[in-house]
Amino acid sequence: MGTSQHLFSEERSAEVVAASFAGTPDPRLRQLTTALVKHLHAFVKEVELTEAEWGYAIDFLTRTGHMSDGARQEFILLSDVLGVSMLVETINHRSGGVATESTVLGPFHMVESPPRALGENIALDGKGTPCLVSGRVTGPDGEPVPGAQVDVWQANDDGFYDVQQPGVQPERNLRGLFTADGDGRFRFRSVVPRYYPIPDDGPVGELLAATARHPYRPAHLHFIVSAPGYRPVTTHVFVADGPYLDSDAVFGVKDSLVRDVPEVDDPARAAEAGLPNPFRTLTFDVALLREDSTAPAPS
Ligand SMILES: [Fe+2]
Fold this sequence. Notes:
Structural class: alpha/beta
Largest sheet: 5 strands, mixed
Radius of gyration: 23 Å
Oligomer: single chain
Order of helices and strands: HHHHHEEEEEHEEEEEHEE
Distance between the termini: 48 Å
Low-confidence stretches: none
Bound molecules: fe (ii) ion
Shape: globular
């Protein structure tokens, strides 16, 4: 056997480089590096990448890193607009048609939501259309999950999260960590979410502009619901009839997560909820899978 088949060539590039990882002790790391090399080399060959394009890509990724800090995660945005975040989320949290479907975490869950009492108002800036949000957390057989933790966050009526506007919005505006009651029910006051653009003043915005894509996400409210003995779900509820539901910049929309937010004109109910009349209501029931259930197959 000569040495030539171990040397790099255009034809055998992926094979030769993959072979260099053959001695990786951790089998999963070996699988990841080998598959990465195979697909990366196939990509470069398919498009016959030029040196200028390679240089642009290096500079793009470098700027993506420089754009990221404690309040901005440009790499997550990049993963989001390429659909990778949704794919990873979906593969790892198959709902089997039983549980509430998951969607992307997004880049704005970077501060802990403050614990709040059921019924509290998370809209500290007073902007937007008042909305009563409520729902019930159940298990796969419809059994209530008492004491489930319901972590919620949303953008304000100007389309920004609190962490994007320090000094403009009150700290922890539109965030709350609620504990469901003994029947698995939760409720809180907020405002109807509004659509917003993902931050597009960095490399990811440059990518969207160059490819004639818009940066908008349809109106949504983020949830992470968890309880001992159950698999947590990271998801959103989307507002029906709003713009961008069928062209979410990060591909997060699933039909099962869209809800109407009907108006209620009832002074007694408004007074009971602590909201001005009329107000809107959003109902989002959440079904969790048990921790020990086997992962359902792709549906
Ligand atoms: Fe969001």
